[in-house]
Amino acid sequence: MRFLKERYVRWVGIFIVAFIVTFFDEGHEGDIPYWYRYGVSWLFTAVYWNGAYLIFMMFRKLYPEISKTFLRLIITYVVLFIWMTVGGVPIKLLLGVIDLKAVCTLGIYTEYLVLNLVIAIMVGTMYETVFFFEKWKDAIRQNEELKNQQIRTQFEVLQNQMSPHFLFNSLNTLTTLIAENQDLALEFTEKLSDVYRYILQNKQRELVTLNEELQFVKDYLYLLKIRFPENLNVDFSIPEKCLKMHIAPLTLQMLIENSIKHNVISKAHPLSVDVYITDGCIVVRNNLKLKQVLDKSTKTGLDNIRKRYEYLSDSTIEVIETSNSFIVSVPLIVVKNEEN
C-alpha cells in the first residue's frame, strides 16, 4: 500500500516538476517546440527521480535498522550526489546537448556541483524523514500489538481460573454436606450441575448482561440456602433500567462467595448481603463477623475480579472495609451497540 502511494506521488510529481522546469526555462530559442522542451524536461526528471528512488530503496534494504540511520544518510547523500552529477550524461550525449570532449575534460561534472549537492541533500532528507516516521509508527504499532496480546493472554488465564475456582469451593461445600446430611448433598449435587452449566456456557465470554448474571447468582444462592437455610440473607435492589448493562461473568458470585468464606454464619451471627446500584456501579455489601480460621482458599476471588477489570474497563473496582461492613463496588459496563 505504501509502495503504491509513493509510486503515485512520484509519477505525478515528475509531470509537475517537468512542467515547472519547462515553464521557467528561458535558455532556449523560440523556434524549439514547447512539447519538445517539455519532453526533454520530463525525461531528465523521470531518470533522476526514479534513479534516486532506487538508491533510497537499496540502502534501506542494506541498512534498515534505526541505529544505522546516520550511516545510511551519509552513504545515501554521497551516492545521490554522484547520481545527480553523472546520471543524465548518457541522455545529454544522445540528445547532442554535450559532446565527448566536455565529458573527458570534466566540464559537465563541475557546472552544477553546488546545485546537485543541494538537491541531493533536500531530496535525501525528504525521503529519509518519511522513512523515519514510517519506522517510528511501525514500532509504536508493534509495541501496542504486543502489549494488547500480553493483556489478552493474561485475561484468558484469569478466565480459565474461574471454572476451577468455583468447582473447588463447591466441592468443599459438598464435602461438608455429605458429612452433615446426605439427602441435602444429593439435592445440592443436582442443582450444582445446573449452575455449572452456566459457567461452561459463559466462561469464554468477556461480558454478560447484568440480568444474566443475576439469574445465575439467584440459582447459586439456592445452593447456599441448602447449607444456610436461615442464617444467610441476600437482598437485591436493582432498577430494571440497569439490567441490560454488562458485567464480567461470575463477578457477583465470587463476591458473595467471598463474604461467606471470610465470615461466621450462624443463628447468633447471620450474614446479610445487600446488592444494589449506585453511580453506575453494582455494590455488594456484607456485615462483618470474621472467622478466626479461614476455609481452604484458592485466593483468586477479589484479585481475579480486579485484574479482569483492568482489561475490561478504565474504571477499577473499589474495596472498602469498615468496622462492621465490607463493601465492594464494581463498575457496570455499557456496550455501545446495545445501548438502545
Q: What is the spatial order of strands in the main beta sheet?
A: 2-4-5-7-6
The helical percent reads 55-70%
> What best-fitting shape do the alpha-carbon axes yield?
rod-shaped
Low-confidence parts: none
- N-C termini distance: 38 Å
Annotated CATH topology of the largest domain: Heat Shock Protein 90
Q: How much of the polypeptide forms β-strand, as a percent range?
A: 5-15%
Derived structural class: alpha+beta
Rounded average pLDDT: 76
* CATH-level-4 superfamily name of the largest domain: Histidine kinase-like ATPase, C-terminal domain
Which features does this protein show?
five-stranded mixed sheet, rod-shaped, 340 residues, Heat Shock Protein 90, 7 strands, alpha+beta, single chain
Can you put this structure into words, describing what you see?
With 340 residues, the chain is of the alpha+beta class. The protein has two domains: 2-111, no CATH class; 155-338, Heat Shock Protein 90 (2-Layer Sandwich). The chain has helices spanning 2-24, 34-62, 69-86, 89-95, 100-104, 107-110, 113-180, 182-202, 210-227, 251-262, 301-312, and strands at 208-209, 232-237, 246-247, 271-278, 281-287, 318-321, 325-331. A five-stranded mixed β-sheet has the order 2-4-5-7-6, with helices on one face. It has a two-stranded antiparallel sheet with strand order 1-3. The radius of gyration is 38 Å and the shape is rod-shaped. 19% of the residues are buried.
